[in-house]
Amino acid sequence: MKKRHEELSKNEFDRWLRTLKIFSSIEWVEPSEPHPDWQLLLDGKLWFVEATTIVPTVEQGKNQIMEPTVTASISDFIDEVEDLARSEDCLSGAYTVAVGPMPSRHSFRKQIAAKSLDYIRSTKELSKAPPHIIGEYGEYVYETEKHHNSKNYVAEIIDLRFRSNVEIDDDLTAQLSMMMDRKADRYSGSSEAVLLLLLDGFHVASPDVWKNVVSSSDSARRFEAVFRIKPANDPFLLYSKMGYWRTLYQR
C-alpha cells in the first residue's frame, strides 16, 4: 500500500501530464518489486517513478528542539481527516490544511478535524473555495482551502511563518540533499530511466533554493528528471538530464 505523500505526488503529476494533451495513453503500473513506486507508460515508453516527501523539522518547546516527528504527527492527523471525509463520501476535490505544531490534548485535534470536515462538506459542489480559518494555537493560525476538483485528497501545509527565511532555506538544503543522496544510492548501477517526484512539505521556501540544491547535486545526475510537487500546482522541473522533459515542461 502506497503512502499518502506518494499518492499525492502521483495524482498531481498525472493531472499535469493529462493537461498537456499530447499522450494518447497514460498508464500507471504497480510493480511487483518494492521499487520503483510505479512504472509509468507514456504512449508505451517506460519510465520508473520514485516519489518521496521533503518535510521540515519543526521547532518545539522553549529550547527550540528540532523534532522531525512533529511533522509526522501532523501528517497522520491529516490522514485521519481525509479518511473521515472519504468515509462520509464528501471529499470532492483537492484541499490543503495549513497547520503548525499541535497541542497534545484530544479536544483541540477533534475541533480542528470537525471544522475541516465542515468546510469540506460545505464546498463539495464548488470547483474551488477561498481559505477559511479553522483554529488558532499560540501564534499559529490554522486554515483550510479548496484548490480544484481534478483530484480528491487532503494535504497538509506545515506553517513555518515564524522561522526566518535563512532557517527555512538551511533546513530545506539539508533535507533535500540527504534525500537526493538516498534515492540515488537506491538506483546505483541501474540503467532504468527514473523520474523523481519530491513532494514539497516546506511550501514557503524559495523555489530558487530547490533548484540550486538539485542542480548542484551529483545525485541528480542519476535521474532523467527531478520535479518538485506542490499540492494544487503544476509540477516544477528542478533538473532534466535530456531535453525531453524540459521540452514538455515548457509547453
The CATH topology assignment of the largest domain is Trna Endonuclease, Chain: A, domain 1
Oligomer: single chain
First-last Cα distance: 34 Å
Order of helices and strands: HEEEEEHEHEEEHEHEEH
Rg, nearest Å: 19 Å
Explained architecture:
By secondary structure, the chain is an alpha/beta fold. It folds into two domains: 4-55 and 164-249, Trna Endonuclease, Chain: A, domain 1, CATH 3.40.1350; 66-158, no CATH class. It contains six helices and twelve strands. The chain has helices spanning 4-20, 69-87, 106-122, 165-186, 207-215, 243-249; strands at residues 26-29, 38-42, 45-54, 59-60, 65-66, 94-99, 129-137, 140-148, 153-158, 194-200, 225-229, 236-240. The chain has a six-stranded mixed sheet with strand order 1-2-3-10-11-12, with helices on both faces. A four-stranded mixed sheet has the order 7-8-6-9, covered by helices on one side. A hairpin with a 6-residue loop joins strand 11 and strand 12 (236-240). Helix 2 crosses helix 3 (106-122) and helix 4 (165-186) packs parallel to helix 5. It is globular.
